[in-house]
Structure formats: structure tokens, C-alpha cells
Amino acid sequence: MPSDSSYQFTVYNHESGVNIFKILILLNELGLTYKERLLDFGKKEHKEEWYCKMMPNGRIPALVDHWNDDKVVWESNAMLKYLCRYDTEKRLTVSNPELQSEMDTWLFFQSSHQGPMYGQLQWFSFYHEEAIPSAVHRYTAETRRIFGVLDRVLQDREWLVGNKCTIADIAFIKCNEYAARYLLGDNFSLSKEFPNVARWHSTLMARPKVAWVFKYKAEQDCGRERQHVTGETLSSFASRATGLSKKAILAQPAATVNLSAS
Ligand SMILES: N[C@@H](CCC(=O)N[C@@H](CS)C(=O)NCC(=O)O)C(=O)O
């Protein structure tokens, strides 16, 4: 049932959000209308009852579709799939059931492998209270392994599914960008180690709406000091961080990067 809201979606987000990139990219690619609501992790707003009633996992992102009875959708790849119902020309999705199954496979691979492994590497590299080298080693190896899986598949094809850019490709962009820039260290070169991923990633980053979202997120003014995903402010994190962690602080406003030059 259409509500009288002038925009279709409310997107619940945080300034440090990684999974939100794919959602903002798809909303902008499809020209859908939305308003963002930035939660205050410092105040643990994402754990409050009103939010957890809607989003039981108490995390971001989440989406409310005001033009469909305020339907709530969460888990970023489920959100991508939900939004595809509004992609009436199938610009970024596929209709053939075999291809749909392939698309689902990549979406599940992204959310069960890429997201968690890269996420744990970020956690143990920057946020964990004690240094645990074996955990960093384990998740570094997993991150490289996942890049390797993608690189092998992209050796003889331009896109993951159906010879066109789909939500399967979009789902991987932000984690790959962050991992290539920060997680694997200063000497890591995506184009040297995983040239097929680098080519695919550069093509994705060059899409105008993708570039727009990265620029928007870099400039996002949340009206308060930027927070890390832990809720800690940027300046308090900066005062105690060293080495790679210090670089991660600079990474917070997500800058675009020319990976083909690296
Ligand atoms: N699998 C989920 C991951 C959601 C997630 O881990 N969100 C993080 C930020 S990217 C979060 O809300 N962290 C805050 C917390 O754990 O309290 C998705 O893809 O949406």
C-alpha cells in the first residue's frame, strides 16, 4: 500500500558502514528515492528496542519500504535482491532461473566468505584489544584465498554472471576496495597479484553511480564527530593507534582509488 511519504525508502546506516555501499549503489543505479538515517553507535542506538524490533540482529544496514506497507528488509544481500523487484528492465539482475541460481551463489559466497573473512581481518588488525598475530595470519590467508577464487573465475569472463554487471558484482565492491587499500598491507598490489580482480574492480569503480557513492561517503557529514564501527570517535581512536591502525583512521572517509595504477 503506498504511503504518503515523498521518498520510498528509509535506509538505516552508520558513517563507517561497509555493507551499505552496495545498497546505496543499487538505489542510485535504479534511481529509487530514499532518506538515510545515521545511527549513533556511541550511544548504542542500534541496540535500542525500537531498532531491534525492526532489525533483530541490531546491526546496520536495514531498509524500510514505505511504499510497500513499511516492509523491513535487512542483511545487505537480501536487500539487494529485494530492490531488484523495482529493476523492471532487469538492468542489474537476470531473469533466467539458471542464471538466478548463479547470482545467488555469488551473493551467498560474498556474505558467507568475503564479508566475514575480510571483516575479521579488519577486526583483528585494528580493533581487537590484544594483538593476536595468529588470527591476523589466518584471516590474511583467507582474504588472499578469496581474492584468488575471484581471480580464477574472472580469468575468462568479464562479469560474475550472465555477461553483464549484476548485483552479484556490486556486492563485492566495497570489501575489495577496503582490503586492497588497507587490509593486506603497504606492499600489496591488487593488479600484480590478482590482475583479473583488479580489472573487474576498476571497471566497477568507474561506473558513475559507484563513483558518486564513494565520493558521497567520503564527504558524509553526520553532524557529529565520525565514529568507528565500535562507536569510538575518530580522535580518541587516533590518539592511541599506531602503524596500520593509524592508516585505517585515514581510511575512514572512503577515498576512491585508482587500482590499475597500484
Ligand atoms: N551480514 C550483514 C553484516 C552486518 C554488519 O556486520 N554490520 C556491521 C557494520 S558493517 C554493524 O552493524 N556492526 C555494529 C555492531 O556489531 O554492533 C550484512 O551484510 O548486512
TrEMBL record:
Residues 96-224 form the GST C-terminal domain. Residues 7-91 form the GST N-terminal domain. It holds the Pfam family GST_N. Gene3D superfamilies: 1.20.1050.130. InterPro entries: Glutathione-S-Trfase_C-like, Glutathione-S-Trfase_C_sf, Glutathione_S-Trfase, Glutathione_S-Trfase_N, GST_C, Thioredoxin-like_sf. It comes from the Eukaryota. Transmembrane segments: none annotated. CDD domains: GST_N_Ure2p_like. Belongs to the GST superfamily. PANTHER family: GLUTATHIONE S-TRANSFERASE-RELATED (PTHR44051), TRANSCRIPTIONAL REGULATOR URE2 (PTHR44051:SF3). This is Related to URE2-Nitrogen catabolite repression regulator. It comes from Serendipita indica (strain DSM 11827) (Root endophyte fungus). The lineage of its organism: Eukaryota, Fungi, Dikarya, Basidiomycota, Agaricomycotina.
